[in-house]
Amino acid sequence: MAQSAPLQLLPLPTSISPSFWHRLTSLKLHHLGLDDKPVPIKGCYSLGKTVPDKLTGDSVGISGALELDEGSFDLDVGHGASAPSPHPDHFVLRGVLRNYNTIEEFKRADKAKLLSDLGDQIWAAVRDSSPETTLADLNPFLMITFADLKKYRYYYWCALPALVQKPGWEIVEGWRDCDEPALEQIDTSVILLRPGGVTASLHAFKTFWAQTPPKERTLVFSDPSSHSNALGWPARNALVFLAHSPTTLDPPVRRLRIISRRESKQLSCVVQLPEVVDVASPARPAVVGWEKNGAGKLGPRMADLAPLMDPTRLADQALDLNLQLMRWRILPSLDLDKVKNTRCLLLGAGTLGCYVARTLMAWGVRKITLVDSSTVSFSNPVRQPLFEFEDSLEGGKPKAAAAAAALKRIYPGVDATGVSLSVPMPGHPIPPSSLESVRADVIKLDQLFEEHDVVYLLMDSRESRWLPTVMGAAKEKLVINVALGFDTFLAMRHGLPPSSDAPILAPSPGSPFRGKLGCYYCNDVVAPQDSLTDRTLDQMCTVTRPGIAAIASATAVELMVSVLQH
Protein backbone atom coordinates (compact mmCIF):
# COMPACT_ATOMS: atom_id res chain seq x y z
CA MET A 1 0.00 0.00 0.00
CA ALA A 2 1.35 3.44 -0.94
CA GLN A 3 2.28 5.82 1.81
CA SER A 4 -0.57 8.19 2.74
CA ALA A 5 -0.34 11.93 2.08
CA PRO A 6 -2.19 14.84 3.69
CA LEU A 7 -5.36 15.97 1.92
CA GLN A 8 -4.67 19.36 0.35
CA LEU A 9 -7.36 22.05 0.28
CA LEU A 10 -7.02 25.05 -2.03
CA PRO A 11 -8.06 28.48 -0.60
CA LEU A 12 -11.01 30.12 -2.33
CA PRO A 13 -9.99 33.58 -3.61
CA THR A 14 -12.41 36.48 -3.99
CA SER A 15 -13.30 38.11 -7.29
CA ILE A 16 -15.01 41.47 -6.80
CA SER A 17 -16.76 43.24 -9.65
CA PRO A 18 -16.66 47.07 -9.84
CA SER A 19 -20.46 46.94 -9.67
CA PHE A 20 -20.13 45.66 -6.09
CA TRP A 21 -18.30 48.85 -5.10
CA HIS A 22 -20.82 51.04 -6.91
CA ARG A 23 -23.62 49.35 -4.97
CA LEU A 24 -21.73 49.72 -1.69
CA THR A 25 -21.21 53.42 -2.44
CA SER A 26 -24.92 53.93 -2.97
CA LEU A 27 -25.76 51.93 0.15
CA LYS A 28 -23.30 53.93 2.25
CA LEU A 29 -24.49 57.31 0.98
CA HIS A 30 -28.23 56.79 0.94
CA HIS A 31 -28.93 54.20 3.64
CA LEU A 32 -26.09 53.28 5.99
CA GLY A 33 -24.59 56.70 6.67
CA LEU A 34 -22.59 56.30 9.88
CA ASP A 35 -24.12 52.91 10.71
CA ASP A 36 -21.31 50.32 10.76
CA LYS A 37 -23.40 47.32 11.77
CA PRO A 38 -22.86 44.11 9.78
CA VAL A 39 -24.72 43.98 6.47
CA PRO A 40 -25.75 40.53 5.14
CA ILE A 41 -24.41 39.79 1.68
CA LYS A 42 -24.02 36.76 -0.53
CA GLY A 43 -21.44 35.47 -2.98
CA CYS A 44 -21.18 32.49 -5.25
CA TYR A 45 -18.50 30.24 -6.62
CA SER A 46 -18.39 28.13 -9.76
CA LEU A 47 -16.90 24.75 -10.61
CA GLY A 48 -13.22 24.49 -11.42
CA LYS A 49 -12.47 23.80 -15.05
CA THR A 50 -9.67 22.95 -17.44
CA VAL A 51 -9.22 24.72 -20.79
CA PRO A 52 -6.61 24.29 -23.53
CA ASP A 53 -3.89 26.90 -23.92
CA LYS A 54 -4.36 28.52 -27.35
CA LEU A 55 -0.61 28.72 -27.95
CA THR A 56 0.71 25.42 -26.60
CA GLY A 57 -2.40 23.27 -26.50
CA ASP A 58 -1.61 22.29 -22.91
CA SER A 59 -4.42 22.04 -20.38
CA VAL A 60 -4.70 25.03 -18.07
CA GLY A 61 -6.70 24.85 -14.85
CA ILE A 62 -9.02 27.73 -13.92
CA SER A 63 -10.29 27.58 -10.36
CA GLY A 64 -13.53 29.14 -9.24
CA ALA A 65 -13.57 32.18 -6.96
CA LEU A 66 -16.01 33.70 -4.49
CA GLU A 67 -17.66 36.21 -6.81
CA LEU A 68 -19.20 39.40 -5.48
CA ASP A 69 -21.13 41.91 -7.58
CA GLU A 70 -24.04 44.34 -7.28
CA GLY A 71 -26.41 41.41 -6.76
CA SER A 72 -24.54 40.40 -3.59
CA PHE A 73 -26.72 42.83 -1.63
CA ASP A 74 -30.01 41.47 -3.01
CA LEU A 75 -31.23 38.95 -0.47
CA ASP A 76 -34.42 37.18 -1.52
CA VAL A 77 -37.27 37.32 0.98
CA GLY A 78 -37.71 33.92 2.57
CA HIS A 79 -34.27 32.73 1.50
CA GLY A 80 -31.90 35.43 2.73
CA ALA A 81 -28.49 34.94 1.25
CA SER A 82 -29.08 31.21 0.90
CA ALA A 83 -31.27 31.64 -2.17
CA PRO A 84 -30.17 29.40 -5.02
CA SER A 85 -27.92 30.90 -7.65
CA PRO A 86 -29.67 31.78 -10.92
CA HIS A 87 -26.69 30.32 -12.81
CA PRO A 88 -26.19 26.56 -13.14
CA ASP A 89 -23.12 25.19 -11.41
CA HIS A 90 -22.81 28.35 -9.29
CA PHE A 91 -23.22 27.88 -5.55
CA VAL A 92 -24.21 30.54 -3.05
CA LEU A 93 -22.46 31.28 0.24
CA ARG A 94 -23.73 33.68 2.88
CA GLY A 95 -21.62 36.35 4.48
CA VAL A 96 -21.55 39.66 6.29
CA LEU A 97 -19.94 42.96 5.38
CA ARG A 98 -18.71 45.45 7.95
CA ASN A 99 -17.94 48.87 6.52
CA TYR A 100 -15.96 51.10 8.85
CA ASN A 101 -16.32 54.87 8.87
CA THR A 102 -12.60 55.71 8.98
CA ILE A 103 -9.44 54.06 7.75
CA GLU A 104 -8.18 54.09 11.35
CA GLU A 105 -11.18 52.04 12.50
CA PHE A 106 -10.56 49.63 9.64
CA LYS A 107 -6.94 49.18 10.69
CA ARG A 108 -7.81 48.85 14.41
CA ALA A 109 -10.49 46.21 13.85
CA ASP A 110 -9.75 43.08 15.89
CA LYS A 111 -9.32 40.67 13.00
CA ALA A 112 -8.56 37.73 15.28
CA LYS A 113 -11.80 38.20 17.21
CA LEU A 114 -13.85 38.66 14.05
CA LEU A 115 -12.48 35.39 12.69
CA SER A 116 -12.92 33.64 16.03
CA ASP A 117 -16.56 34.73 16.25
CA LEU A 118 -17.26 33.21 12.85
CA GLY A 119 -15.39 30.08 13.93
CA ASP A 120 -17.73 29.82 16.92
CA GLN A 121 -20.69 30.14 14.55
CA ILE A 122 -19.38 27.32 12.37
CA TRP A 123 -18.62 25.15 15.40
CA ALA A 124 -22.15 25.68 16.71
CA ALA A 125 -23.53 24.47 13.37
CA VAL A 126 -21.27 21.40 13.58
CA ARG A 127 -22.26 20.53 17.13
CA ASP A 128 -25.97 21.27 16.75
CA SER A 129 -26.19 19.05 13.67
CA SER A 130 -29.47 20.63 12.61
CA PRO A 131 -31.49 18.76 9.97
CA GLU A 132 -31.33 21.97 7.91
CA THR A 133 -27.53 22.29 7.94
CA THR A 134 -26.11 23.03 4.48
CA LEU A 135 -22.65 23.68 3.14
CA ALA A 136 -23.48 27.40 3.15
CA ASP A 137 -24.16 27.21 6.92
CA LEU A 138 -20.71 25.71 7.39
CA ASN A 139 -18.96 28.30 5.24
CA PRO A 140 -20.02 31.83 6.21
CA PHE A 141 -17.65 34.50 4.97
CA LEU A 142 -16.66 37.91 6.26
CA MET A 143 -15.69 41.10 4.46
CA ILE A 144 -14.42 44.22 6.21
CA THR A 145 -14.16 47.43 4.21
CA PHE A 146 -13.43 51.12 4.31
CA ALA A 147 -14.80 53.16 1.41
CA ASP A 148 -12.97 56.39 0.62
CA LEU A 149 -15.84 57.90 -1.33
CA LYS A 150 -13.97 61.07 -2.28
CA LYS A 151 -11.16 59.23 -4.06
CA TYR A 152 -13.16 56.09 -4.98
CA ARG A 153 -10.69 53.84 -3.23
CA TYR A 154 -12.00 50.80 -1.39
CA TYR A 155 -9.91 49.01 1.22
CA TYR A 156 -11.08 45.49 2.00
CA TRP A 157 -10.11 42.17 3.51
CA CYS A 158 -12.07 38.95 3.11
CA ALA A 159 -12.11 35.84 5.26
CA LEU A 160 -13.61 32.42 4.59
CA PRO A 161 -13.10 30.74 7.99
CA ALA A 162 -12.20 27.06 8.19
CA LEU A 163 -11.83 24.86 11.25
CA VAL A 164 -8.46 23.10 11.46
CA GLN A 165 -8.87 19.33 11.68
CA LYS A 166 -6.18 17.73 13.88
CA PRO A 167 -5.08 15.16 13.04
CA GLY A 168 -5.94 15.95 9.43
CA TRP A 169 -7.46 13.79 6.74
CA GLU A 170 -5.00 11.70 4.76
CA ILE A 171 -5.27 10.35 1.23
CA VAL A 172 -4.99 6.56 1.26
CA GLU A 173 -6.02 6.02 -2.37
CA GLY A 174 -4.77 8.71 -4.73
CA TRP A 175 -6.67 10.94 -7.12
CA ARG A 176 -8.01 9.35 -10.30
CA ASP A 177 -10.61 10.05 -12.94
CA CYS A 178 -14.05 8.67 -12.27
CA ASP A 179 -17.44 8.62 -13.88
CA GLU A 180 -20.63 8.50 -11.84
CA PRO A 181 -23.62 8.85 -14.22
CA ALA A 182 -25.91 9.53 -11.26
CA LEU A 183 -24.12 12.83 -10.66
CA GLU A 184 -24.73 14.43 -14.06
CA GLN A 185 -27.85 16.31 -12.93
CA ILE A 186 -26.67 17.25 -9.45
CA ASP A 187 -27.18 20.97 -8.75
CA THR A 188 -26.22 21.17 -5.08
CA SER A 189 -22.87 22.02 -3.55
CA VAL A 190 -22.46 18.75 -1.63
CA ILE A 191 -24.34 15.45 -1.39
CA LEU A 192 -23.91 12.00 0.12
CA LEU A 193 -23.80 8.92 -2.07
CA ARG A 194 -24.09 5.17 -1.48
CA PRO A 195 -24.18 2.18 -3.82
CA GLY A 196 -27.00 2.15 -6.33
CA GLY A 197 -26.75 5.88 -7.03
CA VAL A 198 -28.83 6.77 -3.96
CA THR A 199 -28.16 10.32 -2.70
CA ALA A 200 -28.99 12.42 0.36
CA SER A 201 -28.26 15.82 1.85
CA LEU A 202 -25.21 16.42 4.01
CA HIS A 203 -27.11 16.71 7.29
CA ALA A 204 -28.66 13.23 6.85
CA PHE A 205 -25.38 11.30 7.07
CA LYS A 206 -26.21 9.70 10.45
CA THR A 207 -29.17 7.80 9.09
CA PHE A 208 -28.21 7.62 5.42
CA TRP A 209 -24.95 5.79 6.11
CA ALA A 210 -26.25 3.76 9.06
CA GLN A 211 -26.19 0.51 7.08
CA THR A 212 -23.42 1.49 4.65
CA PRO A 213 -19.93 -0.01 5.10
CA PRO A 214 -17.19 2.65 5.50
CA LYS A 215 -15.62 1.73 2.15
CA GLU A 216 -18.88 2.53 0.35
CA ARG A 217 -19.54 5.93 1.93
CA THR A 218 -19.05 8.67 -0.67
CA LEU A 219 -19.08 12.45 -0.37
CA VAL A 220 -19.72 14.31 -3.64
CA PHE A 221 -18.44 17.87 -3.63
CA SER A 222 -19.10 20.51 -6.32
CA ASP A 223 -15.52 21.68 -6.40
CA PRO A 224 -14.20 25.16 -7.28
CA SER A 225 -10.66 23.77 -7.41
CA SER A 226 -8.99 22.97 -10.73
CA HIS A 227 -5.91 21.47 -9.09
CA SER A 228 -5.43 17.79 -9.86
CA ASN A 229 -4.38 16.97 -6.28
CA ALA A 230 -6.38 19.38 -4.11
CA LEU A 231 -9.96 20.02 -3.05
CA GLY A 232 -11.61 23.42 -2.88
CA TRP A 233 -11.76 25.29 0.44
CA PRO A 234 -15.50 24.89 1.25
CA ALA A 235 -15.03 21.11 1.58
CA ARG A 236 -12.88 21.66 4.65
CA ASN A 237 -15.71 22.49 7.03
CA ALA A 238 -17.92 19.77 5.51
CA LEU A 239 -15.29 17.20 6.50
CA VAL A 240 -15.11 18.69 10.01
CA PHE A 241 -18.89 18.42 10.20
CA LEU A 242 -18.82 14.71 9.32
CA ALA A 243 -16.01 13.99 11.77
CA HIS A 244 -17.13 16.06 14.77
CA SER A 245 -20.92 16.15 14.64
CA PRO A 246 -22.32 14.15 17.60
CA THR A 247 -23.58 10.85 16.24
CA THR A 248 -24.31 7.24 17.12
CA LEU A 249 -23.22 6.12 13.66
CA ASP A 250 -21.23 2.90 13.98
CA PRO A 251 -18.57 2.96 12.84
CA PRO A 252 -18.24 6.78 12.85
CA VAL A 253 -17.06 8.68 9.80
CA ARG A 254 -13.36 7.99 9.63
CA ARG A 255 -13.00 6.83 6.05
CA LEU A 256 -14.57 8.40 2.94
CA ARG A 257 -14.47 8.30 -0.79
CA ILE A 258 -14.55 11.87 -2.09
CA ILE A 259 -15.72 12.73 -5.59
CA SER A 260 -14.65 16.15 -6.82
CA ARG A 261 -17.24 17.24 -9.37
CA ARG A 262 -15.80 19.79 -11.78
CA GLU A 263 -17.03 21.41 -14.97
CA SER A 264 -15.62 18.93 -17.44
CA LYS A 265 -14.73 15.87 -15.37
CA GLN A 266 -14.89 14.06 -12.04
CA LEU A 267 -11.98 13.08 -9.83
CA SER A 268 -12.04 10.82 -6.80
CA CYS A 269 -9.83 9.80 -3.93
CA VAL A 270 -10.20 7.94 -0.65
CA VAL A 271 -9.34 9.69 2.60
CA GLN A 272 -9.33 8.70 6.21
CA LEU A 273 -8.48 10.06 9.63
CA PRO A 274 -5.45 8.46 11.29
CA GLU A 275 -7.39 8.17 14.55
CA VAL A 276 -10.99 8.28 15.69
CA VAL A 277 -12.22 11.73 16.68
CA ASP A 278 -13.64 12.19 20.17
CA VAL A 279 -17.02 13.66 19.20
CA ALA A 280 -17.86 14.22 22.87
CA SER A 281 -15.14 16.87 23.17
CA PRO A 282 -16.65 20.38 23.23
CA ALA A 283 -13.37 22.11 22.38
CA ARG A 284 -13.53 24.07 19.15
CA PRO A 285 -10.64 23.53 16.75
CA ALA A 286 -8.48 26.46 15.71
CA VAL A 287 -9.79 28.62 12.88
CA VAL A 288 -7.99 30.09 9.86
CA GLY A 289 -9.21 31.88 6.76
CA TRP A 290 -8.04 35.47 6.19
CA GLU A 291 -7.22 35.94 2.52
CA LYS A 292 -3.70 36.85 1.42
CA ASN A 293 -3.13 40.03 -0.55
CA GLY A 294 -1.46 40.44 -3.93
CA ALA A 295 1.98 40.17 -2.33
CA GLY A 296 1.13 36.75 -0.90
CA LYS A 297 0.97 38.06 2.67
CA LEU A 298 -1.88 38.31 5.12
CA GLY A 299 -3.21 41.82 4.71
CA PRO A 300 -5.94 43.94 3.12
CA ARG A 301 -6.27 44.89 -0.52
CA MET A 302 -7.29 48.16 -2.18
CA ALA A 303 -9.51 48.66 -5.24
CA ASP A 304 -9.04 52.02 -7.00
CA LEU A 305 -12.05 52.67 -9.22
CA ALA A 306 -11.32 56.29 -10.16
CA PRO A 307 -9.34 55.43 -13.34
CA LEU A 308 -12.15 53.12 -14.49
CA MET A 309 -15.01 55.57 -14.08
CA ASP A 310 -16.49 57.95 -16.60
CA PRO A 311 -15.56 61.53 -15.55
CA THR A 312 -19.17 62.67 -15.88
CA ARG A 313 -20.33 59.91 -13.57
CA LEU A 314 -17.55 60.80 -11.16
CA ALA A 315 -18.85 64.37 -11.07
CA ASP A 316 -22.40 63.10 -10.45
CA GLN A 317 -21.35 60.94 -7.53
CA ALA A 318 -19.06 63.61 -6.07
CA LEU A 319 -21.90 66.13 -6.10
CA ASP A 320 -24.28 63.67 -4.44
CA LEU A 321 -21.62 62.77 -1.87
CA ASN A 322 -21.30 66.28 -0.43
CA LEU A 323 -25.06 66.63 -0.21
CA GLN A 324 -25.74 63.19 1.25
CA LEU A 325 -23.25 63.82 4.05
CA MET A 326 -25.69 66.37 5.49
CA ARG A 327 -28.20 63.56 6.03
CA TRP A 328 -25.82 61.30 7.94
CA ARG A 329 -25.80 63.23 11.18
CA ILE A 330 -26.99 66.85 10.95
CA LEU A 331 -30.27 66.64 9.01
CA PRO A 332 -31.45 63.05 8.40
CA SER A 333 -34.89 64.20 7.19
CA LEU A 334 -33.50 66.34 4.35
CA ASP A 335 -35.27 65.39 1.10
CA LEU A 336 -32.56 65.86 -1.50
CA ASP A 337 -34.55 64.23 -4.29
CA LYS A 338 -37.18 66.94 -4.04
CA VAL A 339 -34.51 69.60 -4.46
CA LYS A 340 -32.77 67.71 -7.25
CA ASN A 341 -35.98 67.30 -9.27
CA THR A 342 -37.11 70.92 -8.91
CA ARG A 343 -37.13 72.75 -12.25
CA CYS A 344 -35.84 76.30 -11.82
CA LEU A 345 -36.46 79.28 -14.13
CA LEU A 346 -34.07 82.20 -13.66
CA LEU A 347 -35.29 85.50 -15.12
CA GLY A 348 -32.05 87.43 -15.43
CA ALA A 349 -28.59 86.05 -16.19
CA GLY A 350 -26.57 88.89 -14.72
CA THR A 351 -24.81 89.08 -11.37
CA LEU A 352 -27.72 87.61 -9.41
CA GLY A 353 -28.52 85.03 -12.07
CA CYS A 354 -24.94 83.73 -12.19
CA TYR A 355 -24.67 83.36 -8.42
CA VAL A 356 -28.12 81.79 -8.07
CA ALA A 357 -27.35 79.28 -10.84
CA ARG A 358 -24.07 78.25 -9.21
CA THR A 359 -25.75 77.79 -5.83
CA LEU A 360 -28.59 75.77 -7.35
CA MET A 361 -26.04 73.45 -8.92
CA ALA A 362 -24.32 73.08 -5.56
CA TRP A 363 -27.67 71.89 -4.16
CA GLY A 364 -27.92 69.29 -6.90
CA VAL A 365 -30.62 70.96 -9.01
CA ARG A 366 -30.42 69.42 -12.48
CA LYS A 367 -32.84 71.58 -14.51
CA ILE A 368 -31.94 75.30 -14.82
CA THR A 369 -33.25 77.68 -17.50
CA LEU A 370 -31.83 81.20 -17.75
CA VAL A 371 -33.67 84.04 -19.49
CA ASP A 372 -32.02 87.32 -20.53
CA SER A 373 -32.14 89.69 -23.48
CA SER A 374 -28.72 91.34 -23.21
CA THR A 375 -25.18 90.41 -24.19
CA VAL A 376 -21.99 90.07 -22.16
CA SER A 377 -20.19 93.41 -21.75
CA PHE A 378 -16.61 94.04 -20.67
CA SER A 379 -17.72 94.98 -17.15
CA ASN A 380 -19.54 91.68 -16.60
CA PRO A 381 -16.92 88.89 -16.21
CA VAL A 382 -15.36 90.21 -12.99
CA ARG A 383 -18.77 90.45 -11.27
CA GLN A 384 -20.68 87.66 -12.95
CA PRO A 385 -18.88 84.34 -12.37
CA LEU A 386 -20.29 82.43 -15.35
CA PHE A 387 -18.65 84.73 -17.90
CA GLU A 388 -15.09 85.13 -19.15
CA PHE A 389 -13.29 87.88 -21.03
CA GLU A 390 -13.73 86.05 -24.36
CA ASP A 391 -17.51 86.17 -23.90
CA SER A 392 -17.45 89.96 -24.15
CA LEU A 393 -15.52 90.14 -27.46
CA GLU A 394 -17.09 90.96 -30.83
CA GLY A 395 -20.07 92.69 -29.28
CA GLY A 396 -20.58 90.07 -26.59
CA LYS A 397 -22.29 86.70 -26.57
CA PRO A 398 -25.97 86.43 -25.55
CA LYS A 399 -25.92 86.26 -21.77
CA ALA A 400 -28.46 83.47 -21.34
CA ALA A 401 -26.79 81.10 -23.80
CA ALA A 402 -23.28 81.89 -22.52
CA ALA A 403 -24.34 81.30 -18.91
CA ALA A 404 -25.99 77.97 -19.78
CA ALA A 405 -22.88 76.84 -21.66
CA ALA A 406 -20.72 77.77 -18.67
CA LEU A 407 -22.92 75.71 -16.34
CA LYS A 408 -22.47 72.66 -18.57
CA ARG A 409 -18.70 73.17 -18.62
CA ILE A 410 -18.67 73.31 -14.83
CA TYR A 411 -20.93 70.28 -14.41
CA PRO A 412 -21.88 68.25 -17.52
CA GLY A 413 -24.76 66.58 -15.70
CA VAL A 414 -26.84 69.77 -15.50
CA ASP A 415 -29.69 70.37 -17.95
CA ALA A 416 -29.04 74.07 -18.55
CA THR A 417 -30.78 76.12 -21.25
CA GLY A 418 -30.38 79.76 -22.24
CA VAL A 419 -33.31 81.71 -23.71
CA SER A 420 -32.96 85.21 -25.20
CA LEU A 421 -36.17 86.95 -24.27
CA SER A 422 -37.41 90.45 -23.38
CA VAL A 423 -39.99 90.78 -20.60
CA PRO A 424 -42.57 93.55 -21.23
CA MET A 425 -42.56 96.19 -18.47
CA PRO A 426 -45.19 98.67 -17.23
CA GLY A 427 -44.18 102.25 -17.96
CA HIS A 428 -42.37 101.20 -21.11
CA PRO A 429 -44.68 101.67 -24.13
CA ILE A 430 -44.48 99.08 -26.89
CA PRO A 431 -44.08 100.53 -30.39
CA PRO A 432 -46.47 99.08 -33.01
CA SER A 433 -43.55 97.60 -34.94
CA SER A 434 -42.63 95.44 -31.93
CA LEU A 435 -46.07 94.07 -31.09
CA GLU A 436 -45.56 90.71 -32.78
CA SER A 437 -42.16 90.09 -31.18
CA VAL A 438 -43.48 91.11 -27.75
CA ARG A 439 -46.48 88.82 -28.20
CA ALA A 440 -44.13 85.96 -29.09
CA ASP A 441 -42.00 86.72 -26.02
CA VAL A 442 -45.05 86.63 -23.74
CA ILE A 443 -46.19 83.31 -25.22
CA LYS A 444 -42.70 81.89 -24.72
CA LEU A 445 -42.57 83.23 -21.15
CA ASP A 446 -45.95 81.63 -20.44
CA GLN A 447 -44.64 78.31 -21.75
CA LEU A 448 -41.53 78.56 -19.57
CA PHE A 449 -43.68 79.16 -16.48
CA GLU A 450 -45.66 76.01 -17.27
CA GLU A 451 -42.48 73.94 -17.61
CA HIS A 452 -40.86 74.99 -14.31
CA ASP A 453 -41.63 74.71 -10.61
CA VAL A 454 -39.74 77.67 -9.15
CA VAL A 455 -39.20 81.11 -10.70
CA TYR A 456 -36.43 83.49 -9.63
CA LEU A 457 -36.81 87.23 -10.32
CA LEU A 458 -33.26 88.49 -10.81
CA MET A 459 -33.63 91.38 -13.27
CA ASP A 460 -32.05 94.85 -13.19
CA SER A 461 -35.16 96.98 -12.78
CA ARG A 462 -38.16 96.94 -10.51
CA GLU A 463 -40.78 97.15 -13.23
CA SER A 464 -39.35 94.18 -15.15
CA ARG A 465 -40.54 91.94 -12.30
CA TRP A 466 -44.18 92.98 -12.53
CA LEU A 467 -45.42 90.64 -15.27
CA PRO A 468 -43.56 87.56 -13.93
CA THR A 469 -44.99 88.29 -10.48
CA VAL A 470 -48.54 88.31 -11.83
CA MET A 471 -47.92 85.18 -13.91
CA GLY A 472 -46.40 83.36 -10.95
CA ALA A 473 -49.44 84.11 -8.79
CA ALA A 474 -51.85 83.07 -11.55
CA LYS A 475 -50.03 79.79 -12.17
CA GLU A 476 -49.37 79.13 -8.46
CA LYS A 477 -45.61 78.87 -8.85
CA LEU A 478 -43.06 79.40 -6.12
CA VAL A 479 -41.58 82.82 -6.94
CA ILE A 480 -38.35 83.95 -5.27
CA ASN A 481 -37.51 87.63 -5.63
CA VAL A 482 -34.02 89.06 -5.02
CA ALA A 483 -33.15 92.77 -5.00
CA LEU A 484 -29.99 94.66 -4.04
CA GLY A 485 -29.23 97.94 -2.32
CA PHE A 486 -25.82 99.42 -1.66
CA ASP A 487 -25.20 97.47 1.54
CA THR A 488 -28.59 95.80 1.95
CA PHE A 489 -30.54 93.18 0.04
CA LEU A 490 -33.96 91.59 -0.17
CA ALA A 491 -34.65 87.89 -0.67
CA MET A 492 -38.32 86.95 -0.39
CA ARG A 493 -40.80 84.35 -1.52
CA HIS A 494 -44.10 85.47 -2.97
CA GLY A 495 -47.31 84.29 -1.39
CA LEU A 496 -50.61 83.11 -2.85
CA PRO A 497 -54.27 83.91 -2.10
CA PRO A 498 -55.96 82.06 0.80
CA SER A 499 -57.84 79.87 -1.67
CA SER A 500 -54.67 78.42 -3.21
CA ASP A 501 -53.95 74.75 -2.62
CA ALA A 502 -50.67 74.52 -4.55
CA PRO A 503 -48.68 71.90 -2.59
CA ILE A 504 -45.33 73.54 -3.26
CA LEU A 505 -46.48 76.88 -1.83
CA ALA A 506 -49.54 76.86 0.32
CA PRO A 507 -49.02 76.84 4.11
CA SER A 508 -51.01 74.28 6.05
CA PRO A 509 -54.65 75.22 6.79
CA GLY A 510 -53.87 76.13 10.40
CA SER A 511 -50.79 78.18 9.61
CA PRO A 512 -50.87 81.83 10.82
CA PHE A 513 -49.23 82.81 7.52
CA ARG A 514 -51.92 81.35 5.27
CA GLY A 515 -53.18 84.09 2.95
CA LYS A 516 -50.82 86.67 4.50
CA LEU A 517 -47.69 86.20 2.42
CA GLY A 518 -47.49 89.08 -0.02
CA CYS A 519 -45.29 89.88 -3.00
CA TYR A 520 -42.78 92.52 -4.03
CA TYR A 521 -45.54 95.01 -4.89
CA CYS A 522 -48.06 94.53 -2.08
CA ASN A 523 -47.18 97.80 -0.32
CA ASP A 524 -47.14 99.89 -3.51
CA VAL A 525 -49.64 102.74 -3.75
CA VAL A 526 -49.30 103.04 -7.54
CA ALA A 527 -48.28 100.62 -10.24
CA PRO A 528 -44.59 100.34 -11.17
CA GLN A 529 -43.30 103.08 -13.45
CA ASP A 530 -40.34 103.63 -15.74
CA SER A 531 -37.27 103.72 -13.48
CA LEU A 532 -34.68 103.85 -16.27
CA THR A 533 -35.52 106.87 -18.44
CA ASP A 534 -33.97 110.26 -17.58
CA ARG A 535 -31.63 108.75 -15.01
CA THR A 536 -27.92 109.30 -14.48
CA LEU A 537 -25.60 106.34 -14.90
CA ASP A 538 -25.33 105.65 -11.17
CA GLN A 539 -29.15 105.66 -10.95
CA MET A 540 -29.60 103.28 -13.87
CA CYS A 541 -26.99 100.72 -12.77
CA THR A 542 -27.14 98.66 -9.61
CA VAL A 543 -24.63 100.32 -7.30
CA THR A 544 -23.88 97.78 -4.61
CA ARG A 545 -21.01 96.36 -2.65
CA PRO A 546 -19.64 93.47 -4.75
CA GLY A 547 -20.09 90.86 -2.01
CA ILE A 548 -23.78 91.59 -1.44
CA ALA A 549 -24.91 89.85 -4.64
CA ALA A 550 -23.38 86.52 -3.62
CA ILE A 551 -24.92 86.77 -0.14
CA ALA A 552 -28.37 87.67 -1.50
CA SER A 553 -28.29 84.93 -4.13
CA ALA A 554 -27.24 82.27 -1.64
CA THR A 555 -29.95 83.39 0.78
CA ALA A 556 -32.57 83.12 -1.97
CA VAL A 557 -31.58 79.56 -2.86
CA GLU A 558 -31.48 78.52 0.81
CA LEU A 559 -34.97 80.00 1.15
CA MET A 560 -36.19 77.85 -1.75
CA VAL A 561 -34.67 74.70 -0.25
CA SER A 562 -36.30 75.43 3.12
CA VAL A 563 -39.71 75.96 1.51
CA LEU A 564 -39.39 72.70 -0.42
CA GLN A 565 -38.68 70.77 2.78
CA HIS A 566 -41.91 72.01 4.37
From TrEMBL:
Residues 324-566 form the THIF-type NAD/FAD binding fold domain. InterPro entries: Atg7_N, Atg7_N_1, Atg7_N_2, ThiF/MoeB/HesA, ThiF_NAD_FAD-bd, Ubiquitin-activating_enz. Pfam families: ATG7_N, ThiF. One of its GO terms (molecular function) is Atg12 activating enzyme activity. GO terms for cellular component: phagophore assembly site. Residues 8-309 form the Ubiquitin-like modifier-activating enzyme Atg7 N-terminal domain. GO terms for biological process: autophagosome assembly; autophagy of mitochondrion; cellular response to nitrogen starvation; piecemeal microautophagy of the nucleus; protein modification by small protein conjugation. It comes from the Eukaryota. PANTHER family: UBIQUITIN-ACTIVATING ENZYME E1, UBIQUITIN-LIKE MODIFIER-ACTIVATING ENZYME ATG7. This is Ubiquitin-like modifier-activating enzyme ATG7.
